[in-house]
Amino acid sequence: MRSRESLEFGHEDRKQLYEYVERHGAVDPVDARKSLDIDPVGFRHHVAILKRDGRIAEIDGTLRVTIDAGAEEEYVSEDLEFHIRPARQEDLTGIVGAIRQVAEEKTYIEAESVADEVDHQDALLRYNELESRMFFVATVEDEVVGWVHLYAPELEKLSHTAELTVGVLEEYRGHGIGAHLLSRGLEWAGSTGYERVYQSVPSTNEEAIAFLEAHDWEIEAIREDHYKLNGHSVDEVMMAVDL
Asked: So what's the pLDDT on residue 157?
């Protein structure tokens, strides 16, 4: 499914089924049918139509919203082999853990808020009439070691923009993982129709600012004393890149 196409379903039960799957991330078909109180024949019909239209898929016995985000890619850097792929619902715990570990450095406030939001919801990926949320992950031996996250409210005046966070666990930095994650996230954003991607970091995160500037991001504005870190006021650096 193209992530920003119009959400039209043609039947109220079909719409409710999609929304149920989207809200829960991965659902058992029997549980979904019972929760929605749809007769078995009608339920199977609606599932078939949603599958045909590329809105949902059945994976490992569960129904999930489908987002066209490409395939898994393999990379080798010196003595490290890692993979970058679209995130799956099963990655939720690993992603939240990775974000929280990076956030412990007290240099990535926006990422910490992403972890809080995801941790309090059932679904990792979102695509509904109010918001879109997409993740890609970097894995080493199937463990999440980095992420890139894109979020966009489905508002007409902001429909061309998306917010991005990206991070890699400290022990896996220096292998190009962050650059590959950033590239993958921006490639998806551009192909999906976004024109500008932005993010904000504390001015104390000089490494992140230098990393983004090296990849053609620009500082758009600075909000003085926006953060309070360890009892000290810290500026917010607002950065963006045009696609």
From this structure: 46
- Alpha-helix residue ranges (DSSP H) falling in 68-223: 92-103, 109-119, 177-192, 206-214
Domains of the chain: 12-65 (1.10.10.10), 73-242 (3.40.630.30)
pLDDT of residue 1: 38
Tokens 């659902």 map to which residue? 27
d(C-alpha 154, C-alpha 149), whole Å: 16
What is the tens place of the pLDDT at every residue in 128-138?
888 889 999 99
pTM, two decimal places: 0.89
Identify whether the C-beta of residue 84 lies closer than 8 Å to the C-beta of residue 47.
Answer: no
Residue 240: other Cβ atoms inside 10 A: 18
The predicted-structure confidence for 88-132, as pLDDT tens digits, reads as follows 999 999 999 999 998 887 667 778 888 888 888 889 999 888 888
Cα 149 from Cα 128, distance rounded (Å): 17
Coil/strand/helix, residue 238: strand
Are 202 and 175 within 8 A, CB to CB? no
CA-to-CA separations, 173 to 51, 64, 73, 77, 148, in angstroms, rounded: 39, 32, 18, 11, 14
Q: Which residue, chain included where needed, has tokens 């000089």?
A: 206
